[in-house]
Design brief:
Elements lengths: L1 H69 L8 H16 L3 E14 L2 E5 L2 E7 L6 E9 L6 H5 L7 E5 L5 H10 L4 E5 L18 E4 L1 H11 L4 E7 L1 E14 L8 E6 L9 H18 L8 E6 L7 H9 L2 H5 L3 E5 L9 E4 L1 H10 L4 E3 L7 H5 L5 E5 L16 H20 L2
Helix pairs in contact: 1-6, 1-11, 6-11
Length: 426
């Protein structure tokens, strides 16, 4: 009986040992699986958290655009620009930056509402920038082709308002030819259905009105078959306006390595969502993201005024900066029309565009050194980079009211990466 009991004890001990080994193996196998699961959950939580942050930033940038749009057309020298600048100042200060307002003046041409009246019907037009004002009644005479001297010689426009199609030669040349032929006014009809926003560029002695192709072509056809008298009203003036650049930077930063900018003014009649509340909001978004990083101590952020009238804000800035300040800049990065069209394009100095494409292969590069505020810096020898998504149907129209939040966020993220790399590059 003793031997049997001993064997039973040995058997139980053997079974217990086997069970313990099995349990230990199970624990060892389960431990890394649990760790992986925890790491996976943590990674998922971080990804979701980042997605939430990105969404919040995107919504905030979109809200900035909407606020600027809701002010109405942001035309340089108008009370609306005081409201828009006050909003931007407040947002930059909330993000931890000090701000200053750089004021400047320039002469500005204004169309106060120009038109012509024929048979009691008023046809709205646009006074060409630089025209003299004028109000007169006269016969309307169609000039063949595009208004060269030989074209005016083919008809009698003496004492009449000449009407001619746009194209091939400059507006000023058409106007001078009309004046030399004895015309008392000139109407230029666009070669597209849309309105004409143009500049004479030279002094011309007669009032000049531009009509859209949609309005002007039927008028040319009518006057070629029946005599017409019109009342021409070119209601324009030139006055001195005050622009307001908004400059933001961290306290004590006086010699930045990089400037990020975009204009916040728009053309008359357009709320300017894409052109250029989009660029203004992206610069603000980049500033918010960088505010607590070392990169912010290398940067200035500027909202330029007067761009639509001829880059006046950026010209005032570079003309007021000393040469040492400008030569210390590694780059000026400009954002204009970045809220519509899928493809993001980056233009500017070739070394910077190559750098950009290496870091962000999804962008397209192009060789632009003009057309927006970066041009003022390029003319002073500063390397420039221009973020841009191309023309779109609502450009310079009352319908420029919408942007895509996803595109604003994409532009912001690419800009953040590029700015950090540029500042830290040797």
């Amino acid at each position: 009986m003793i031997n049997t009991k001993f064997q039973s004890i040995l058997l139980v001990n053997r079974q217990a040992k086997l069970w313990l080994q099995t349990a230990l193996v199970a624990v060892l196998v389960a431990l890394p699986t649990a760790c992986v699961a925890q790491q996976s959950n943590r990674a998922r939580e971080l990804t979701q958290s980042q997605a939430v942050v990105d969404a919040q930033e995107s919504n905030r940038t979109f809200a900035d655009v909407q606020t600027l749009v809701n002010f109405g057309p942001r035309v340089a020298g108008t009370p609306v620009m005081e409201k828009a600048s006050a909003y931007l100042i407040d947002e930059y200060r909330k993000a931890g930056y000090v701000t200053e307002v750089q004021t400047f003046t320039y002469p500005k041409f204004q169309d106060l509402g120009s038109n012509l009246t024929v048979d009691g019907a008023t046809v709205e037009g646009k006074a060409l920038n630089g025209t003299v004002p004028g109000k007169l009644n006269a016969p309307l005479v169609a000039v063949p082709n595009v208004g060269r001297k030989a074209d005016f010689a083919a008809v009698n426009v003496k004492g009449a308002v000449a009407i001619v199609r746009r194209g091939e030669i400059r507006f000023s040349e058409k106007a001078k030819n009309a004046s030399a032929a004895g015309a008392v006014g000139l109407v230029i009809v666009n070669n597209q259905p849309s309105d004409v926003y143009g500049t004479l560029g030279e002094e011309v002695k007669i009032p000049v009105l531009a009509l859209s192709g949609q309005q002007g072509n039927p008028l040319i056809q009518r006057v070629q078959s029946v005599p017409l008298n019109i009342s021409l009203n070119v209601n324009a003036q030139r006055r001195v306006v005050t622009g307001r650049n908004i400059i933001a930077h961290l306290e004590g930063v006086t010699a930045p390595k990089i400037i990020l900018g975009g204009h916040y003014d728009s053309v008359p009649g357009s709320p300017g969502a894409n052109d250029n509340a989009s660029g203004t909001a992206v610069v603000l978004a980049v500033a918010r993201n960088l505010s607590s990083t070392p990169t912010a101590r290398q940067a200035w952020f500027i909202a330029f005024d007067g761009e639509e009238d001829g880059l006046h804000g950026s010209r005032a800035f570079v003309n007021g900066a000393n040469s040492q300040f400008l030569s210390g800049l590694k780059a000026m990065v400009n954002f204009d029309m970045v809220g519509v069209n899928e493809q993001l394009r980056i233009g500017g100095t070739s070394s910077l565009t190559r750098f950009a494409q290496n870091l962000a292969p999804q962008v397209k590069t192009f060789g632009s050194s003009g057309g927006s505020d970066h041009a003022s810096f390029a003319n002073k020898g500063v390397p420039v980079m221009f973020f841009y998504r191309g023309q779109e149907p609502n450009y310079h129209t009352p319908n420029d009211k919408k942007v895509d939040p996803k595109l604003l966020n994409e532009t912001t993220q690419i800009a953040l990466n590029l700015v950090k790399q540029i500042v830290n590059a040797n």
